[in-house]
Amino acid sequence: MPYSRTFAEGDCVLCTHCPSCGFSNFPPSHVCAKCLSLDVQAKPLSRQGALYSYTTLRRGDKTLFVGTVDLPEQIRLLAIIEGFDPAPTCGAAVELSRVRPLNEVNSEREPPFVFRRLAKGGMA
Known about the structure:
Elements: E1 4-7, E2 10-17, E3 24-25, E4 41-44, E5 48-59, E6 62-71, E7 75-82, E8 93-99, E9 113-117
Parallel strand pairs: 7-9
Antiparallel strand pairs: 1-2, 2-3, 2-4, 5-6, 5-8, 6-7, 8-9
């Protein structure tokens, strides 16, 4: 089951949602992780979330922020965090920028999800 899809408005991350118990599961699965129902549906996750925590990685002269993002569906994703200078702040509003396909060459082993700082007033 795919974990992402590209629409006209951009990339989105998919979860499976169980209509029986209301649980959303990531990564997507053919069975509900909570009630074991087989009646699950692919559903796009929210594109906006809040930065829960992060760490700073330095490679030579390159600085990279990697953090966990809390989504409204009670799902937390590990992602690259962009758009902060000098550093992110926990609780900051972020938005999904892009999803790197798993089959793309990734010699640095970076997370496939990239979230970007959301402009002020962007998140409700």
